[in-house]
Amino acid sequence: MSISAQHKAITHQKPRIPDFEELYSAVRTYEQKMYTDAQLAALPDFSIHSKEWEIRRRSSNRLLTYLARKRRFLKILEVGCGNGWLSAKMAGLPKTYVTGLDVNMAEINQASRVFKIPNLDFTYDTFNENTFDKERFDVIVFAASLQYFSSVVSVLRQAERLLNRGGEIHIIDTPFYDADAAASAAERCRNYYKDMGIPEMADHYFHHSISEFWGFKYKIMFDPTSLLNRLFKKDPFYWVVITK
């Protein structure tokens, strides 16, 4: 093949589309959320991004208090655990064994390095029907991760399949929208990632509605739209529990 023909073949080759892990890592770096080991160990009590961590500290405390009251052994899976701070907090409860799952290798490696807890392990993998073959869990947590799945129904059915009888799925730190708000939020999302120089990430961020829980046995444990919560305007996210 001549040099000119080689050049033509190269220039007509389709550009490689970065996968979710690459895009998410780039976003985390841009947002300055790839923390040092010392910073990670301090979460959620942290001065950087303090407003966000104040919200997550309160939501995690509500969840931890709820789980502690069960007073029995709980096998827990956190889907989309990121750097593992919440998984580590749950592993600090008595009578628990926690698995943190995420597709970000850098954060999974850091979590394994920082949180050396006997009843805690971290797994680098996607969450789908093939992720766990025979394992079953009492609790599955989606904390700030459900918005990265295109179908609420599909991912929750997968999670239900992994639950023991009477098991629970907990969803926290996740935005939900009505139809009008979802459209405007999607536009803001596209502009946000475009300004960041990572426009492809908008294709991996989904704007879900509470109505998508129809058909599941669910209960809203914390409602940010209640009168009291709207008056104080502290926590913007629902806490939803689905029971098998």
From TrEMBL:
Keywords: Methyltransferase, S-adenosyl-L-methionine, Transferase
Molecular-function GO term, any one: 2-polyprenyl-6-hydroxyphenol methylase activity
Pfam families reported in the protein's UniProt record: Methyltransf_25 (PF13649)
CDD domains referenced in this protein's UniProt entry, alphabetically: AdoMet_MTases (cd02440)
Annotated Methyltransferase domain residues: 76-167
Catalytic EC class: transferase
Gene Ontology BP term (one): methylation
EC number annotated for this UniProt entry: 2.1.1.222, 2.1.1.64
InterPro entries the record matches: Methyltransf_25 (IPR041698), SAM-dependent_MTases_sf (IPR029063)
Source organism, top-level taxon: Bacteria
Entry keyword S-adenosyl-L-methionine: yes
PANTHER family noted in UniProt: METHYLTRANSFERASE, UBIQUINONE BIOSYNTHESIS O-METHYLTRANSFERASE, MITOCHONDRIAL
Protein name: Class I SAM-dependent methyltransferase
Organism: Mucilaginibacter ximonensis
